[in-house]
């Protein structure tokens, strides 16, 4: 039934004022863009042409298109719909989240897991939940932006340790005045592809009564025949070691997780704001990641093939092989890196670009990943074209590591 007055004429929206001369904000934005342009650091969003050979993705094992993973996502879509509809603590917890968490425990050998809607949220979630004014965070100099942001948001005192320098970490922990401490590292670093000295770090953390928090974003599906570097070095389940991971790289899905003790999980459920105030991971992502984790656990040969391809890339391009999915070719300047990537795109090959501020040493690089399921002939053809483009590029002066 119409409410009284429904027939009355509806007033027009007020006219939108015509744009006037640019104000101070526009001037500032233009100035910032110009500076980025001049430094060769302007980034643009673009879609990948369908015909491109994709050597830029994080889908290290090709699982995002694996028929079993796609079927699992489709089944979850039919069963649960497109979204989780609520946060986990309201009505968003679905059986599929619990199945995912159990499977991630199986894969990594950890006692408990909690899924987040991204790896970024997992890192900011665990650090803000653990940090406070009486908890020192010692963060490796090469730690990912999500760990840096988590440390900043935690309101903890933060010290930066020299990259993979265990003695430096030990000194920072030993002279602290805070009661608690957490040391934050990645297992496999994304730019250099080097492995953190986890055994030594864990020993220092045990002596100094600190937690070692390891981001396995680039370790799961890659190190330890897929089960991660923490598992490989025998630290899975150690009470003073916790792990974070993303579901969006080797698992080919979307989301993240924190793994560790049951007590840590309980604490996160109650205090991690990116968990509490966030809609639960979409059912399709949870189902896809569960299937992918199971495939990785039961098919270690998949990871072996990734390393074979990585070796082929390194040998063909004459670069030192990183013990990681990502291989990278140093280039003299950010502009040269962007130009090379553009030339390759024009030849039907997508490669990534590492540029400041994403590179810890300021050296720009072409970033190349060859998924474990890529046909060798296709990879070989692409590498031939990459060599042609690289031949015309200046190389950088590389500092000693
Ligand atoms: C080391 C590391 N940690 C965390 C993340 C964030 O993961 P996600 O993309 O799932 O948010 C990334 C993604 O690039 C990463 O490289």
From TrEMBL:
The keyword Lipid biosynthesis does not apply. Homodimer. This is 8-amino-7-oxononanoate synthase. Its cofactor is pyridoxal 5'-phosphate. GO terms for biological process: biotin biosynthetic process. GO terms for molecular function: 8-amino-7-oxononanoate synthase activity; pyridoxal phosphate binding. PROSITE patterns: AA_TRANSFER_CLASS_2. Gene3D superfamilies: Aspartate Aminotransferase, domain 1, Type I PLP-dependent aspartate aminotransferase-like (Major domain). Residues 52-386 form the Aminotransferase class I/classII large domain. It comes from Kocuria tytonis. Transmembrane segments: none annotated. Residues 1-30 are annotated as: Disordered. It catalyses: 6-carboxyhexanoyl-[ACP] + L-alanine + H(+) = (8S)-8-amino-7-oxononanoate + holo-[ACP] + CO2. It is an enzyme of class 2 (transferase). Pathway: Cofactor biosynthesis; biotin biosynthesis. Its EC number is 2.3.1.47. It comes from the Bacteria. The keyword Transferase applies. Belongs to the class-II pyridoxal-phosphate-dependent aminotransferase family. BioF subfamily. Keywords: Biotin biosynthesis, Pyridoxal phosphate, Transferase.
């Amino acid at each position: 039934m119409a409410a009284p007055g429904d027939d009355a004429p509806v007033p027009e929206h007020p006219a939108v004022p015509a744009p006037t001369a640019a104000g101070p904000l526009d001037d500032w934005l233009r100035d910032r863009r110009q500076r980025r342009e001049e430094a060769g650091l302007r980034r643009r969003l673009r879609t990948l042409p369908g015909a491109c050979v994709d050597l830029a993705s994080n889908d290290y094992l090709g699982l995002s298109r694996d028929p079993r993973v796609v079927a699992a996502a489709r089944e979850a879509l039919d069963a649960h719909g497109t979204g989780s509809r609520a946060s986990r603590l309201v009505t968003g917890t679905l059986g599929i989240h619990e199945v995912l968490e159990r499977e991630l425990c199986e894969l990594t050998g950890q006692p408990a897991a909690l899924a987040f809607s991204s790896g970024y949220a997992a890192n900011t979630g665990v650090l803000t939940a653990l940090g406070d004014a009486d908890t020192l965070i010692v963060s490796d100099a090469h730690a990912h932006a999500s760990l840096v942001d988590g440390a900043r948001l935690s309101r903890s005192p933060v010290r930066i340790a020299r990259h993979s320098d265990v003695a430096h970490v030990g000194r920072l922990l030993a002279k602290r005045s805070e009661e608690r401490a957490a040391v934050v590292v990645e297992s496999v670093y994304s730019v250099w592809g080097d492995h953190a000295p986890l055994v030594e770090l864990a020993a220092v953390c045990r002596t100094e009564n600190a937690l070692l928090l390891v981001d396995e974003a680039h370790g799961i599906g890659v190190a330890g025949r897929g089960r991660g570097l923490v598992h490989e070095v025998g630290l899975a389940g150690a009470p003073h070691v916790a792990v974070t991971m993303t579901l969006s790289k080797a698992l080919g899905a979307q989301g993240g997780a924190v793994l560790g003790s049951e007590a840590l999980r309980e604490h996160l459920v109650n205090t991690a704001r990116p968990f509490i105030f966030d809609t639960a991971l979409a059912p399709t992502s949870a189902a896809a990641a569960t299937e992918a984790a199971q495939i990785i656990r039961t098919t270690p040969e998949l990871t072996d093939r990734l390393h074979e391809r990585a070796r082929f890339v390194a040998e063909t391009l004459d670069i030192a092989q990183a013990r990681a999915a990502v291989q990278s070719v140093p280039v003299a300047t950010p502009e040269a890196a962007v130009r090379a990537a553009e030339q390759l795109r024009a030849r039907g090959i997508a490669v990534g670009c590492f540029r400041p501020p994403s590179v810890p040493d300021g050296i720009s690089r072409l970033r190349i990943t060859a998924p474990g399921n890529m046909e060798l002939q296709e990879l070989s053809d692409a590498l031939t074209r990459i060599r042609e483009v690289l031949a015309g590029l200046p190389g950088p002066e590389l500092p000693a590591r």
